[in-house]
Amino acid sequence: MTSFTGPASSAHARPPRVGLFCTCLVDTLRPSVGFAAAKLLEEAGCEVDVPRQTCCGQPAFNSGDRATARALAEQTIAAFESFDYVVAPSGSCAGMMKTHYAELFAGEPDGMIRAEHFCAKVYELVSFLVDVMGMTSVTARYEGVATYHDSCSGLRELKVKDQPRTLLASVEGLTLNEMADADTCCGFGGTFCVKYPDISNAIVGKKADNVVASGADTLLAGDLGCLMNMAGKLQREGHQIAVRHVAEVLAGMGDGPAIGVAKKD
Amino acid sequence: MSIAITSPQLKENAAEALKDAQLQEALAKVGPGFIGKRAAAAAAMPEFDALRDSARDIKNHTLAHLDLYLERFEEKVREAGGHVHYAVDAADARAIITDICKRLSAKTVTKGKSMISEEIGLNDHLEAQGIIPVETDLGEYLIQIRHETPSHIIAPAIHLNKRQVEADFRRVHTDLPADRDLTEPTSLLAEARGELRQKFLVADVGITGANFLIAETGTSVLVTNEGNGDLTQTLPKAHIVLASLEKLVPTLEDATQLLRVLARSATGQDMSVYTTFSTGPRRPQDGDGPGEYHVVLLDNGRSAMLEGELREMLRCIRCGACMNHCPVYHAIGGHAYGWVYPGPMGSVLTPSLIGVEKGANLPNASTFCGRCEEVCPVRIPLPKLMRHWREKEFERHLTPAPQRYGLKVWSFFATRGWLYRPATRLAMAALSLLGRSKGRFSSLPLAGGWTKYRDFPAPEGDTFQAQWRARKASSRSNAA
Questions:
Q1: How many angstroms separate the CA atoms of A56 and A101, rounded?
Q2: What's the pLDDT score for residue A2?
Q3: At B356, is the secondary structure helix, strand, or coil?
Q4: Structural domains present in chain B
């Protein structure tokens, strides 16, 4: 059974209302990650809804287009501010919302206060389950040897490191084999990977070597951007390593096709 | 004349670097060599992070009162019998140094490693004036005899391997026996030492950089691991310290605080092998030392950085930790960045010094992984400052056209949810159908940058938002 140690789940008179920020990549390319996230949040005792949304604005922010980033921040805040928590299955989008939104409203005291209230409610999925909801294990089964890549924003902006490993340790049938340099960037970097494809390729090439050397048959991470980058490289090199979002495995939904693998008809 | 700027060709430089097997072999050692050593040094010191805060605060304080500390420094140097020269730009600094050399009829100048010297293109200028500059840091000596530029701010020849060094020594040291053994690093070192010892003895002027300038005492501080800095500054008739404005710190105590984070961040050493404090020329009671002591303080665009966000960059103490931990630097090395300063610190500093028009590629060529900021001993928010340059570039419409238009189209949809959601549903339905048999694409129109090296996954089908709403609607109707 999914278990908790924290008082968080009982501290609320009513279940916490979580707005799931699904991220534009999960929304468009891999909805199953969104359903896995919703399932985990519900198992943790949350009431989940998915308000209408587009993108957190990070691509604009990192491309120097502050006006668009601010417009998207405003749109996202408006869509989510009625929730107790805003949770995203991505350290990158959660990091953008939690650590950068306030600065987009510099010089606008009201906007800044509103943004700061919002930022305080934003969490990355797995760290939310463990740190806020007090989850210590999951009820899931996954047959395989997995290795886990620490995505940069989650790791450095939100300190997501032990939480996914704690929960993965409770998955029946799963062995975690750490790869070398698990905390080194995979070379995705948002628009970086298409602006500087040669450099990005060199970085993801090293990552793929480390994944392969770990002996794992499954690669997990908490960010779809990084996962697509690594999956795409491993597949181009002909490796048969299943690449999945960590939420799929934790939710017991790791039996569908892996990233970039066709559905069986 | 300064180093030729090839930063606008970063992509081409990078492509070349990635194909260079010898360079890749050398770069493969950068991460393993530096990362573990820094981590061990930091772990061995429980107060390391607190020291970083303190280092940041010392530099912030100094920068906030830089005018006062510069005046104080100048006064103290003068009291000790030295001279301070202010250089507005590179040409100014070169002229000041050449004048001193000419006045002393200098023929040979020995040099300790100085990135500022690279920044102002000093060696070429001295040579053009008939003065022979001799680099005495081993790495700098190697790149000087190869007519190259440094590829790292603390390990300038990190792109070379020992076979290349052996070949260069055989090419340049022609007076030595051809059959000598140069296979071991120690024999290479002994040969360089022998060659350089002669130069130290004949040099008329010694030029060094400075890691810190201390306002309280008018002292320059230099750290090295080879001792070459000491021979450079004590043997000749004059010692010229060439340093940029932001090297100032208020007190001796502040300098020693910063020294505690410098070597640990750079090489993982507790301290560099040599740490030398120099105050003024030789006094009558001193056994040795230079007859003249000059400090050339270079601005070259730095005082303009004092106002605004970029001031934080002036905290940099040039430890190199940011590049040692940078995945992009590890992939392409320092030369690809196309000017003096590579890696994350170079990506922020270079556009300030050569202009965003020429330097814009640098702050863009970052994955924003944040590891540089994580290890910076003075906590410079390097990704934030790189983003600052991207904003300047965007504001001034310097962003490359395909990227600008792509961003425009995407923003148009993303800020209009009512349009975005049906449009993404339609696009995903089509893509998912196209990619159904294989589950991925090996090429996609408009995504060549991605599919050149990787496959792209086919979407699962309908969007998450649409599926979620459909499920909610059906569970509501079931409940009813």
A1: 9
A2: 57
A3: helix
A4: 7-304 (3.40.50.10420), 412-479 (no CATH)
Q: Which helix (H) or strand (E) holds B57?
A: helix B48-64
Mutation target to probe the B interface, by most B beta carbons within 10 A, among A29, A156, A253 is: A29
Q: Where are the domains of chain A?
A: 3-130, 137-250
* Cα–Cα distance, A199 to B53 (Å, whole number): 33
Question: Do B327 and A203 lie within an 8 Å CB cutoff?
Answer: yes
pLDDT score of B97 more than 90: yes
Residue of chain B whose Cα is closest to the Cα of A229: B454
Instruction: Indicate yes or no: CB of A32 within 8 angstroms of CB of B18.
Output: no
Distances (CA, A) of B175 to B124, B191, B193, B199, B237: 25, 12, 15, 15, 28
Cα separation, A52 vs A46, in Å, equals 19
Provide, as residue numbers in chain A, all residues whose Cβ is less than 8 Å from the Cβ of B15: 198
CATH 3.30.70.100 fits A137-250, yes or no: no
Interface probe with B: pick from A196, A219, A265, most Cβ of B within 10 Å: A196
Burial label for B287, CB within 10 Å (0-12, 13-18, 19+), is exposed
Least confident interval from A256-265, B245-254, B370-379? A256-265
Residues recorded for chain B:
480
Torsion of CA B276, B279, B281, B284, to 10 degrees: -100
Chain A contact for B450 (CB, 8 A cutoff):
yes
Contact B417 A195 (CB under 8 A): no
pLDDT over 70 at B140, yes or no = yes
Q: Which tokens go with B88?
A: 């507005």
**CB < 8 Å from B in window 135-164 of A:** 152-153, 156-157
| CB within 8 Å of chain B, chain A residues 11-30 | 22, 24, 26-30
For residue B160, which of B142, B172, B138, B135 has the smallest C-alpha distance?
A: B142
Which CATH number applies to A3-130? Answer: 3.40.50
**Cβ–Cβ gap B457/A29 under 8 Å:** yes
Q: Do B438 and A235 touch (CB under 8 A)?
A: no
Interface test with A, best of B10, B397, B432, B460 (most A CBs within 10 A): B460
Same fold, A3-130 and A137-250: yes
Q: By the CB < 8 Å criterion, does B456 face chain A?
A: yes
What would the two tokens of residue A7 be? 């008082």
The per-residue pLDDT for range A36-55, each reduced to its tens digit, is: 999 999 999 999 999 999 99
Query: How many C-alpha atoms does B63 have within 13 Å on its Cβ side?
Result: 24
* Terminal-residue alpha carbon distance, chain B: 81
Contacts of A180 in chain B (CB under 8 A): none
> Token pair of A1, please?
């059974």
Q: What is the DSSP string of B180-218?
A: ----SHHHHHHHHHHHHHHHHHH-SEEEE--SEEETTTT
Per DSSP, helices labelled H in B82-239 are 90-103, 115-119, 122-128, 138-145, 162-172, 185-202, 228-234
Distance from C-alpha of A167 to C-alpha of A165, rounded to nearest angstrom: 5
pLDDT of residue A9: 47
Closest to B463 (Cβ–Cβ): which among A28, A228, A231? A28
Q: Identify the residue whose tokens are 């693998």.
A: A261
A6 pLDDT band, cuts 50/70/90, is very low
d(CA B445, CA B154): 44
- Per CB-CB distance under 8 Å, the chain B contacts of A71 are 411, 415
A135 has a pLDDT exceeding 60: yes
pTM of the predicted protein model? 0.96
Is the predicted pLDDT of residue A213 greater than 90, yes or no? yes
Burial of B146 (0-12, 13-18, 19+ CB in 10 A): middle
